[in-house]
Structure to design on (960 residues):
């Protein structure tokens, strides 16, 4: 029998990892989706299906995906009711190693899930997704009039550990605050990332709910909300205390001091027994209000604060948890608690300190995984030779308990950090407008002023330094926070301040991306937890896609090959005293952090990333991309979206009527397009109403228009398509009713709706393809004589960032260098080299999809969805312009390559009908250039024009 320990140890992590394996198996084999609600199916497919992921620029990473899947699987598929259930339904044997009596406590007697995710990896996005999942399912149960399952709720309580996280949550839900205190909802996470979070047909529902239902901490129990509640507060309300006032001079605040030191004391003579005091506290308006709600989902952000350490290693409950116990006591499984923390554990005291993880951890996305995946910065312990070689004191100089100055060891560490910051600042500014910051973490508030004084003596001014005053715990009052946040607002975007000085505990919610150097100063021999030290600097600074490649290569060099970093892009440096290196050894062995011996030399921090601008005579080599605008209104009109030219389904309706299934059964379409968007339905004739049919059409619309965007006057970016959703909905309905089967078809009569969903050949797939083709035709069938042409010059992008090692100097392009892919980029490199030296070539350019976003062609993919295509090159030779796509021979015949070719040939045909000055007075051509053809003709001495013209004349048969 396994050895049982008092507490949990690491057993919850074993359970979480086992659960993740089971969930992933269920997701891969389809059984997961078979056992969740239709609403949940919609959400999961929108979030994680590759077809949707492909057309979005922003998606959940695998750690966020795992957390979302695990919670939903436990709640909907396994239907766990308490923490004990987590183990009984996953791996009961783990319970043999644990103190199971602990799981019988009241606080564990309801659905309860803890998400362990490294700092900076987006826990709030998981929270948002789970909230949407809960609300939409609860709403669906209400609308359907079915008996409520008890699994879902429209009421949410989000608890933050302090003002910083509290304000961050308000930013996420209501939008960021401007300098005057006003919030703009369009800057909220829900609005900014609505394409990720919310399927189109739920967008208005969710945005309306969030805007109308958020109650700030002072509004809980008093604000009238709409269809549910999103109460956001910090822990003080649940603990029954006000935010702590920072008191520097006790004589000025005698009342506050007495309140803090001498609160209401227990005593039976005054009626103040411990029980009465608890009851008095729990009668608070907010807590009573929350307790009276029929159901509630609680999100604890930074949930490690919910425990405290008692003497003798016993872990006790703080008042925060007692309040949650009170709120949940009558709700049973209608109370759901979801905790988020990078460090969900408690340490016992005594000689053998044991780390006990929360028993309800259901996912473990730890720091190492986040570093390896490039989701947070790599971490380097700066082991300075000059510090290591001298026996220096790292503690502040004191007179008794009073700090009177910094020690030489501290000064040396600060100076080392400042030196690194200056080098990074100088180098980063050369490449891009990035401003690295240094964070000095002081465990004692008395030390901070001396650190500020030190930096001023080193030549910095007041604007360069931000000193955050706080109490011994690092907490600040709301008044002080309101002053601080004005300087912290968008601090990443400004050159100053360069250095932030604070006590250690200014941590959760301090979401600054540009912290590159951390200097932890100590006032005692106590080591600072690694998670606390580095947590403030983990968030990525270099997020742009052009840096992905060099950062990935750097991670391989450092983490796999154990080499020195080749660049300092997204590398967090901790200037540590050698006395504490033993503390980091475990993390060094695990590969979470690395050792760096020396400060990088100037010029070596960026690796091979360079910034390439326009050459002096760029106008001689410039191209413009002609964008044909349809009409002034720039939307598809009702007249254009007609049924003409649309094809019916290839199986007669009479045949389909014969094979229609019996009523009231579950059914599922098996075509890939249907699986990705619709999933399993369970309806009966009387439930498939006009409302259900409208939702069905909305889902088809969402599938077609996921990559569209509405056009606004003055909009800089160019849409794939200009659309009118209402007209497309009308077209879908008319097509289904009058054209799909070449006869009139009413989906609401005689269970005809079943025909739309039952076919192995996928009628839905056919509908999507026909509607997509119609919209595409409307977009491309432009009257060239009346069209307005917008000429977008490539030179408007005056700077490209690229890797020097994977770029070439050129003489016939607007840029001094052109990049090629580091992975399988040999063919493109060869093309650039030979085009540039060909005497007949006038100019050429490599289209970069991250920068030249306008140079795009819309095409219909194999699956019927519309997508964007960027050719590889544009080459001008005399009066001919060639759009060139280079491809290995085995890729030329692939379906999507051929569909891109068809779309580009149609695009070229339209361009060549324009007036000469709208197409650079040149004839445009498209070349799909195979590797064998290119290399073979080069070896025979052919010119670039001969190769391109030969490829056009020879052509490749269109294979579909």
């Amino acid at each position: 029998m396994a050895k049982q320990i008092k507490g949990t140890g690491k057993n919850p992590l074993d359970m979480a990892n086992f659960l993740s394996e089971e969930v992933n198996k269920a997701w891969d084999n389809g059984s997961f989706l078979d056992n969740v609600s239709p609403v949940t199916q919609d959400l999961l497919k929108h979030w994680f299906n590759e077809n949707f992921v492909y057309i979005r620029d922003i998606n959940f990473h695998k750690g966020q995906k795992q957390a979302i899947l695990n919670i939903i699987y436990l709640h909907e598929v396994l239907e766990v009711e308490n923490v004990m259930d987590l183990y009984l339904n996953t791996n009961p044997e783990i319970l043999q190693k644990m103190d199971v009596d602990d799981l019988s406590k009241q606080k564990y007697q309801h659905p309860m899930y803890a998400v362990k995710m490294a700092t900076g990896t987006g826990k709030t996005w998981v929270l948002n997704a789970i909230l949407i999942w809960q609300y939409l399912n609860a709403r669906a149960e209400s609308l359907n009039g079915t008996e409520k399952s008890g699994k879902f709720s429209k009421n949410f309580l989000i608890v933050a550990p302090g003002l910083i996280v509290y304000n961050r949550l308000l930013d996420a839900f209501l939008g960021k605050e401007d300098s005057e205190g006003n919030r703009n909802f369009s800057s909220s996470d829900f609005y900014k990332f609505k394409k990720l979070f919310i399927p189109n047909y739920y967008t208005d529902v969710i945005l309306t709910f969030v805007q109308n239902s958020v109650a700030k901490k002072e509004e809980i129990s008093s604000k009238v909300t709409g269809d549910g509640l999103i109460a956001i507060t910090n822990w003080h309300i649940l603990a029954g205390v006000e935010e702590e006032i920072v008191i520097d001079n006790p004589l000025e605040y005698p009342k506050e001091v007495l309140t803090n030191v001498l609160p209401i004391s227990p005593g039976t003579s005054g009626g103040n027994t411990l029980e009465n005091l608890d009851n008095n506290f729990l009668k608070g308006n907010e807590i009573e209000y929350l307790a009276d709600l029929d159901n509630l989902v609680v999100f604890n952000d930074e949930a490690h604060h919910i425990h405290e350490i008692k003497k003798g290693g016993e872990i006790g409950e703080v008042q925060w948890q007692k309040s949650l116990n009170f709120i949940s006591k009558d709700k049973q499984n209608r109370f759901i608690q979801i905790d988020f923390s990078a460090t969900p554990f408690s340490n016992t005291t005594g000689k053998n300190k044991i780390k006990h993880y929360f028993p309800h951890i259901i996912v473990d996305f730890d720091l190492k995984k986040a570093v390896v995946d490039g989701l947070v910065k790599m971490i380097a312990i700066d082991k300075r030779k000059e510090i290591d070689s001298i026996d220096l004191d790292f503690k502040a100089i004191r007179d008794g308990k009073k700090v009177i100055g910094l020690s030489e060891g501290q000064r040396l560490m600060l100076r080392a950090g400042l030196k690194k910051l200056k080098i990074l600042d100088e180098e980063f500014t050369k490449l891009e407008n990035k401003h690295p910051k240094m964070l000095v973490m002081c465990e004692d508030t008395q030390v901070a002023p001396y650190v500020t004084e030190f930096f001023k003596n080193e030549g910095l001014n007041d604007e360069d330094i931000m000193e955050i005053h706080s109490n011994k715990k690092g907490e600040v009052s709301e008044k002080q926070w309101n002053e601080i946040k004005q300087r912290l607002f968008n601090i990443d975007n400004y050159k100053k301040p360069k250095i932030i000085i604070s006590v250690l505990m200014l941590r959760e919610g301090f979401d600054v991306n540009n912290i590159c150097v951390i200097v932890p100063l100590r006032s005692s021999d106590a080591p600072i937890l690694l998670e606390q030290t580095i947590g403030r600097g983990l968030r990525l600074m270099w997020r742009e896609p052009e840096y992905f490649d060099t950062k990935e290569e750097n991670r391989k060099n450092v983490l796999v090959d154990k080499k020195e970093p080749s660049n300092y892009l997204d590398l967090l440096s901790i200037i540590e005293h050698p006395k504490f290196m033993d503390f980091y050894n475990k993390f060094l062995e695990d590969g979470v952090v690395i050792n760096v011996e020396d400060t990088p030399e100037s010029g070596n921090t960026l690796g091979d990333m360079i910034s390439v601008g326009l050459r002096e005579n760029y106008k001689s080599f410039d191209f413009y991309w002609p964008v044909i605008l349809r009409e002034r209104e720039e939307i598809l009109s009702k007249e254009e979206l007609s049924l003409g030219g649309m094809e019916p389904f290839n199986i007669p309706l009479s045949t389909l009527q014969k094979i229609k299934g019996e009523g009231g059964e579950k059914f599922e379409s098996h075509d890939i397009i249907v699986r990705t968007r619709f999933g399993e339905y369970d309806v009966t004739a009387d439930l498939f109403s006009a409302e259900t049919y409208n939702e069905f059409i909305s889902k088809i619309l969402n599938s077609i228009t996921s990559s569209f965007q509405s056009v606004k006057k003055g909009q800089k970016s160019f849409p794939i398509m200009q659309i009118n959703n209402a007209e497309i909905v009308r077209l879908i309905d008319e097509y289904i009713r009058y054209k799909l089967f070449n006869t009139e078809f009413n989906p609401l009569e005689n269970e005809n709706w079943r025909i739309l969903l039952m076919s192995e050949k996928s009628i839905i797939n056919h509908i999507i393809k026909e509607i997509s083709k119609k919209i595409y035709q409307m977009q491309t069938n432009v009257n060239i004589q009346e069209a307005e042409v917008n000429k977008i010059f490539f030179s408007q992008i005056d700077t490209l960032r690229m890797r020097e090692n994977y770029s070439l100097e050129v003489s016939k392009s607007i840029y001094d260098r052109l990049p090629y892919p580091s992975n399988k980029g040999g063919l493109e490199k060869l093309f650039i080299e030979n085009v540039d030296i060909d005497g007949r070539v006038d100019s050429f350019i490599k289209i970069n999809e991250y920068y030249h976003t306008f140079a795009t062609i819309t095409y219909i993919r194999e699956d019927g969805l519309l997508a964007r295509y960027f050719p590889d090159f544009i080459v001008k030779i005399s009066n001919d312009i060639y759009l060139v796509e280079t491809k290995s021979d085995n890729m030329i015949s692939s379906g999507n390559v051929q569909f891109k070719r068809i779309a580009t040939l149609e695009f070229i045909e339209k361009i060549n009908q324009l007036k000469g000055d709208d197409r650079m007075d040149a004839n445009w051509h498209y070349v799909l250039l195979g590797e064998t053809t290119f290399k073979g003709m080069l070896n025979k001495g052919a010119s670039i024009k001969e190769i391109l013209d030969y490829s056009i004349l020879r052509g490749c048969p269109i294979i579909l």
